[in-house]
Amino acid sequence: MATGIQGKADKKAPRKEKMSFILRPSTARATFCATQIIKRSAHKKVNLQVRLNEYVEGLGKKGEVVSVRPGLMRNILFPTKKASYISKDYQPEPEQELNDMDEILKQTNERLMEKEAVALKKDQELLTNLKNVYEIKFSRAVIPGSENTFGSVTAEDIINKLKEEYNVTVERATIQVKSESGRIKSLGSHPVSVQIGHQTVELTVQVDPTA
């Protein structure tokens, strides 16, 4: 009988060892999966908020703030200038920052040069037109027994006359009436200067008595 009992015990022992062997791979797989999830979570980065500089298919229109993957911004959108960083945490590389500043200064200078060229062309046209104006005539009532007039000729009168008769438009600040009051209050010829850019054009205002 002892031998029979011992035989049964010997048969059960390998079964326990087999069960232990079956459980170990399951535990290993669970540990492996958990490790992989932790690694993926650790490497997963939060999307960035960026501003689009132009229309980008699948993201949005120019000027819109969108959320994108850091890799997409770093490798495609930013190098091609299709988007700009807006995050306060983003600090561009010193070399990139200098390049961006140089580009901004270059664009600013180009715009200033364009405006200066347009202004210079406008001034040249105005100077040419003014040089064809030799004399501007006005008539005013005369105070009896004097050369003085009841009504004066002002800078606004000169501006209106240039516009109506010569189709020339000048600003009030460019006109200088050479008299103490800045108004012409007597008969005769009176010099008036018009400042256009760095050049001055001399005009003559002729005031005659009202008929």
Automatic annotation (TrEMBL):
Keyword Ribonucleoprotein assigned: yes
Gene Ontology CC terms, in alphabetical order: ribonucleoprotein complex; ribosome
Gene3D superfamilies xrefs: Ribosomal protein L9, C-terminal domain (3.10.430.100), Ribosomal protein L9, N-terminal domain (3.40.5.10)
Residues spanning the signal sequence: none
Source organism of the structure: Rhizopus delemar (strain RA 99-880 / ATCC MYA-4621 / FGSC 9543 / NRRL 43880)
UniProt keyword annotations, A-Z: Ribonucleoprotein, Ribosomal protein, RNA-binding, rRNA-binding
Lineage: Eukaryota, Fungi, Fungi incertae sedis, Mucoromycota, Mucoromycotina
Name of the protein in question: 50S ribosomal protein L9, chloroplastic
Highest taxon of source: Eukaryota
